[in-house]
Specification:
2 copies of one chain form a homodimer. With 441 residues, the first copy, chain A, is an alpha/beta fold. The first copy, chain A, has 2 domains: 254 residues, nicotinate phosphoribosyltransferase (Alpha-Beta Barrel), CATH 3.20.140.10; 161 residues, Aldolase class I (TIM Barrel), CATH 3.20.20. Chain A is 36% helix and 20% strand. A 7-stranded antiparallel β-sheet of chain A has the order 13-12-1-5-3-17-18. In chain A, strands 7-6-11-10-9-8 form a 6-stranded parallel β-sheet. In chain A, strands 16-14-15-19 form a 4-stranded mixed β-sheet, with no helix packed on it. Chains A and B meet through α1, α3, α6, α7 and α8 of A and α1, α3, α6, α7 and α8 of B.
């Protein structure tokens, strides 16, 4: 296995590159746009996530010996293309929505500018990262809204492929989760990690009491004991007998949670453990979290539903050519005409239009050519949504790593505040604000 | 970033290991089992996939300096546990279903034997890999059944996180797909790769005709031209004018496919291109494929639905302690009692019971202790389903790499033939065969 990310790519990008280098169109300046025609599942907003990861993966996007040999041996491209790929480094420019930003149908989430050959081969990698991470972040943001002030932990690694699990932990954190069970996400991005014990811990011991006693000895009375391996009522009683009324928390992972949480709270209070917190973790999604709002629950652990986008495991973002130069060097807006999958040609600048601090529209200024579009801070269109992520091949490192992750989270929590109240409802509906296209001057 | 896979792990496995090393239970011999309580989505069978990947990831499951420092700095484990982890290599034994095998509720898909400390920390990695890959393979197998003799290509990389995309291509291939667009899957596992051009190729050129001509020049007349960027009828006409009636194929990526496929076939035949094949690729799943059975379609390309498990992006496999020794060295079967999430204790051997060559039951022999269970070829229970994947820490390399992938695919296609006809229907139902528990002698 190689450290290169260049083969996280669909073959057709390389066959197009090959043919384009032959006929000369490979050097045509182009503008590609990554956007979504719709919001999945009647969601009222989408959350952009993955940008920081994509930039890091772009640093390793080069074709090594193994990749070049594969392309040659399988005759996927010819010698001219092999020589081009041997020296390939993306030297174009990428502007895009800040990670954590909200998006709506048509939002120009990424704009990739470069020659056709330079830009066409980023399609799959960019879509893979943004479609996955944004799907998770969008679901996570809804859960974070539903949970209010109560902390949410992401615990879904086991229900996502091993690398996606790390990315999902990051996306959930950006969208408002406070911690993850995934150690790699802690190591790579500084996300707070958590976790104490599984049912196997209780089953390993000769009695539940032995298991609790050993856990308290190792992790202290502030630990969280899992009380539902056998009988919950007995589990709570044993937990407090062993740990005392200073026990940090108990976790419930099964049963009818509103009922169970209420009876566990009552029992804890009766035993004098009024400060012992209740964490629930059984098959939660945003709806189950909302349904527990009036229950005496102190924290949520969410697994499957957050890492799988709560019913929508991928965003529906696409990567389309929207403008290019022709043989004479003039810019041409281009768009696919297919009836059910059309696209909007032209280079775009995007703004969140606000009235009294509340978002009222996603305003997209479309330029028919390649003219400089005004993206200044004071633009009358509203708050500018795009930033420069890569300038002539130079990646802005401030969006990567733990720093980029923290700033994406802060950005998300800030811009979510701009949304009208209707954006916060969980039911299926239209996007919370309309997308309005205007001509760029 | 490190090459280790040891941190693809939930923190609680390490806190349990830490506490178990302190209280002495860490050295208790244990049997963990990976199984599923149910088949997702009313599926009639599940397909085991990921085993070969898991074994390769297990080779890199060791704690390096970075991981150990993180655990120390964050006080997740104590010094004793750090010393244990520093030298950690899995030295136990793993038996399991062959990759490509079918599974049913309760099937002991993996049985991991070792000390508690040895075996508990494989939970997340094993589940991540098998839950993801099996979800994809299960959906893919249904699509492969629906497509009959027509070839299926996996093209969903853009709708899966970048590493999952590679795993998904492999899982789909094991379950009957014939090719993938994902280059990395070709490089790593020798899966046939395919792909020619996207809409951006047509949009890059001054006319559709220029684009087709250039593609045919580069890739030959056997290539597949994408004909729906503008008007499909004109696209077909242009394609044949440029490439001649020997054109290999056309691809349709939008519109009402049964209608469009029929009219494209008619047009091609009228133009004399009777041998030109039609590939369709627009939002297909197993139901859409089945609905096209009577249409003149020659091949399918499937994206989103296969990489997301067609509505069920994760299998619901869990990893549970089922037997362990007590303080006196006697074996004890253990099981969680939670009402909605119970488990079946004891070590198990599994057989597919056949009558006249047709599967009639998943027979699971349960041993209350750790006795050797008879898994011989001639077992009266039927065809033995488990093989030894890791013996005292030694990984069987025949299940890894391109060879393991090919043999998993062959195994899947072979054992699918054993299923009763009702297993092949797409509608929601009970598992195709019942799970029957018997006592092991």
């Amino acid at each position: 296995m190689t450290g290169s990310t260049a083969f996280k790519t669909d073959q057709y990008e390389l066959t197009m590159l090959d043919a384009a280098l032959r006929d000369g169109t490979g050097s045509r300046p182009c503008v590609f746009e990554l956007f979504s025609r719709r919001l999945s599942g009647g969601r009222r907003f989408g959350v952009v996530a993955g940008t920081g990861r994509l930039l890091s993966l772009l640093r390793d996007f080069h074709f090594g010996e193994e990749e070049l040999r594969f392309l040659r041996d399988n005759r996927i491209v010819d010698d001219q293309a092999l020589r081009y790929l041997e020296n390939y480094r993306f030297t174009g420019t990428i502007r895009g929505y800040r990670e954590g930003e909200l998006y709506f149908p048509g939002s120009p989430i990424l704009t990739v500018e470069g020659t056709f050959a330079d830009a066409v081969i980023l399609e799959t990698l960019a879509l893979s990262v943004l479609n996955h991470d944004s799907a998770v972040a969008t679901a996570a943001s809804r859960m974070s809204i539903a949970s209010g002030e109560r902390p949410l932990a992401e615990m879904g690694s086991r229900r996502a492929a091993e690398e996606s699990a790390v990315a999902a932990a990051r996306a959930a954190y950006i969208a408002g989760f406070s911690a993850t069970s995934n150690l790699e996400a802690g190591l790579r991005w500084g996300i707070p990690t958590m976790g104490t014990a599984a049912h196997s811990w209780t089953l390993l011991h000769d009695s539940e009491e032995d298991a609790f006693r050993s856990q308290v000895n190792a992790l202290g009375t502030s630990t969280t004991l899992l009380i539902d391996t056998y009988d919950i009522r007995r589990g709570v009683e044993t937990a407090i007998r062993v740990a005392g009324t200073d026990l940090g928390g108990v976790r419930i992972d099964s049963g009818d949670l509103p009922l169970v949480a209420a009876s566990v709270r009552e029992q804890l209070d009766e035993l004098g453990a009024t400060g012992t917190r209740i964490t629930v973790t059984s098959d939660l999604d945003e709806y189950a979290i909302a349904a527990l709002a009036a229950s005496p629950v102190d924290a949520y652990g969410v697994g499957t539903s957050v890492v799988t986008g709560s019913g929508y495991p991928t965003a529906s973002m696409v990567y389309k050519l929207v403008a290019r130069q022709d043989a004479t060097g003039s810019w041409v807006s281009v768009a696919k005409a297919s009836q059910d999958k059309g696209s909007q040609g032209g280079r775009k600048a995007a703004f969140r239009t606000l009235e009294n601090g509340v978002a009222v529209a996603e305003t997209i200024a479309v330029s028919s050519g390649f003219d400089e579009i005004d993206t200044a801070e004071e633009h009358p269109g509203g708050r500018p949504l795009q930033v420069t992520l890569v300038e002539s091949g130079e990646i802005d490192s401030s969006y990567e790593g733990p720093q980029g992750t923290e700033s994406a989270r802060a950005h998300h929590l800030r811009v979510r505040e701009e949304m009208p109240v209707r954006a916060l409802a969980l039911s299926k509906s239209d996007p919370a604000i309309p997308t309005v296209y205007v001509d760029a001057r």
